[in-house]
Design a protein that fits this description.
It is a single chain. The protein is α/β, with parallel strands linked by helices. The chain contains 16 helices and nine strands. Strands 1, 2, 3, 4, 5 and 6 form a six-stranded parallel beta sheet that branches. Strands 7-8-9 form a three-stranded parallel beta sheet. Strand 5, helix 8 and strand 6 form a beta-alpha-beta unit. The longest helix is centred in the N-terminal third of the chain and has 24 residues. The relative contact order is 0.14. The N terminus is likely disordered. It binds zinc ion (ZN). The site of zinc ion has 5 residues, from loops.
């Protein structure tokens, strides 16, 4: 049992009295112990894109903003589990691009497995909820795999099983444009499937059957309600924020959050600036990124070279013209809102690091204890913080496994 787990046991057995005494003595130490007492899970990062771009070694410590996740910083931030997303941007649905997105997803998957294997002394692949706990108890970082955008499935339902067998445990049904599964919340052309398509209905049923978590981040409101009606298991929003705190189609409305919670699911607050607080549309960063988005046709790349060039340009804009980002306090406003709306059991955090995520005072996973400090400042106790950092997500993961009949 590593030190943090000793803390966990100690905190449970000694109760609130211990925390109160500790606080009077040393607030920073108390926050550190509360953070270490939680199972900390980040349900969304786009780090695999870096892995396939080559020369990125997860075992080395890097610096933000160029990189926000690696094994040393996951340990510094006391992160127990991280989801690496196999992200493919939505492109025209033609055979060539279906094939390329499938190949790209597999390339990312393989690179994750290689990285985990190379770091097997300190990390392991987790393909079920109990493996996250087991690896945490061994003092190792649990690496979980999600897929962001169901584009690589093409129209082939057998691929859901294929990716499940390779270790993928959630699928974000679409990304910023519509696909064969459902409509996106941000497709410039508007909806085309009237929510979830008939193929999407099959995908939901197959994911329920296998014990794969359905991720509703990015999907349209109508598609979300269709998923809630179709799914036998609770679902997650792996990285979504709250529309009534920061308006935008990509964030979830109060009606959606109520429906999600009634269905037993969880909204993992996304700490990407534009989803946390309205963007400053007069900034240099905003204009440069808009130019880039238009240049690369709303991130619909012609080929691999263009995708790599776009990400290089993106990194350079973020470095040369850094945006004025919102703060942890503004992100925690989203958590507060969900807690007031539906209670403590339905929210968590999905950083979107290495895919645009990052706050002024939370630049990488090593900064996660600062979020805990803000939660403590607002009066959240150990039990509530445990739920936010991982407990709520783990409950959903277990429910999904139970629905599929797993032990
Ligand atoms: Zn995303």
């Amino acid at each position: 049992m590593r030190p943090r787990n000793v803390f966990r046991v100690a905190l449970v057995s000694m109760g609130a009295c211990f925390i109160t005494t500790l606080f009077a003595q040393e607030p920073a130490l108390a926050v550190q112990r509360i953070h270490q007492g939680a199972i900390v899970i980040d349900t969304h990062t786009d780090t695999p894109m870096k892995l396939i771009n080559g020369q990125f070694d997860l075992s080395e410590r890097h610096e933000a903003p160029g990189s926000r996740v690696d094994f040393p910083r996951l340990r510094e931030g006391n992160v127990d589990a991280v989801f690496f997303a196999l992200f493919t941007g939505q492109r025209k649905r033609i055979p060539e691009y279906y094939r390329e997105s499938y190949d790209l997803a597999n390339q990312m998957l393989d690179s994750i497995l290689v990285s985990v294997h190379r770091n097997k002394e300190t990390a392991g692949l987790a393909t079920c909820s109990s493996e996250i706990i087991r690896l945490s108890d061994q003092g190792k970082t649990a690496v979980c795999i999600g897929m962001e955008n169901g584009f690589p499935l093409g129209k082939d339902i057998a691929r859901v099983r294929e990716f499940y067998d390779k270790g993928v445990r959630y699928i974000t049904l679409c990304h910023s444009a519509n696909n064969d599964i459902c409509d996106s919340s941000t497709d410039p052309q508007g909806p085309e499937n009237n929510g979830l398509s008939s193929f999407g209905q099959q995908v939901v049923a197959e994911m329920n059957r296998l014990g794969m978590i359905i991720d509703v981040s990015h999907i349209s409101d109508k598609a979300f309600f269709d998923v809630i009606a179709a799914s036998k298991a609770p679902v997650i929003a792996s990285h979504s924020s709250v529309r009534s705190v920061c308006n935008g189609h990509r964030n979830m409305s109060d009606t959606m959050i109520r429906a999600l919670s009634r269905h037993g699911g969880v909204i993992q607050i996304c700490i990407l600036g534009a989803y946390v607080a309205p963007e400053d549309t007069t900034s240099e960063n905003f204009h440069k990124l808009e130019e880039l988005r238009l240049k690369y046709n709303n991130w619909q790349y012609k080929d691999d070279e263009e995708r790599k060039a776009a990400w290089r340009a993106y990194d350079s804009i973020e470095t040369c013209f850094p945006p004025v980002l919102p703060t942890i306090a503004q992100a925690v406003d989203h958590i507060d809102h969900v807690v007031k709306l539906v209670g403590i059991d339905y929210t968590g955090i999905g950083s979107d690091f290495d895919g645009g995520g990052g706050l002024a005072d939370c630049v990488d996973v090593a900064d996660f204890p600062k979020i805990t400090a803000e939660l403590v400042k607002r009066g959240y106790n150990q039990e509530e913080i445990n739920k936010i950092w991982g407990g709520n997500f783990l409950r959903v993961f277990r429910e999904v496994e139970k629905t599929a009949g797993h032990e």
